[in-house]
Specification:
Blueprint: H1 13-17, H2 21-35, H3 42-57, E1 63-68, E2 73-78, E3 87-91, E4 102-106, E5 111-115, H4 118-122
């Protein structure tokens, strides 16, 4: 007695549209949830990772983490993995027309800089040249 596998007919695009509305709505929900998530785009990530690379080369930073929520995207920078983040670079589109979508937040929660342009906001993390008197 050999059992043959059951053959399942594939649905055509026309038959999928005729399906129940509840199934179609359930299949759209994960796609809409993914679209509702705030994230950094490619140019923003390139700008952030360029700064991160220079700080890692200088030995100041060692690790990072990214978090993408519905309200904001966060790039957290760590000196050591076991610590709290040294800085958080946040993108909050709800504040884009008010104070600017980008912010750099220190470990204690103090907002160091906020603005509309990411490159200008990240300048707060660059070392300022020191005056050397000889």
């Amino acid at each position: 007695m050999s059992e043959e596998p059951e053959i399942v007919a594939l649905r055509t695009p026309a038959s999928r549209q005729e399906g129940s509305g509840a199934q179609a709505e359930a299949s759209r929900q994960p796609a809409q949830a993914a679209l509702a998530q705030v994230a950094f785009n490619r140019t923003e990530l390139a700008t952030i990772l360029h700064l991160y690379g220079t700080k890692v080369a200088a030995g100041e930073w060692r690790d990072y983490a990214m978090d993408f929520n519905r309200e904001r995207a966060v790039f957290a920078v760590y000196r050591r993995t076991s610590e709290l983040p040294l800085y958080r670079i946040e993108k909050n589109p709800k504040l884009a027309r008010k104070q600017g979508a980008y912010a750099v937040v220190a470990a204690g929660g103090q907002i160091l800089r906020r603005g509309h342009d990411l490159a200008q906001v990240l300048k707060v993390l660059l070392k300022k040249p020191k005056l050397v008197i000889a």
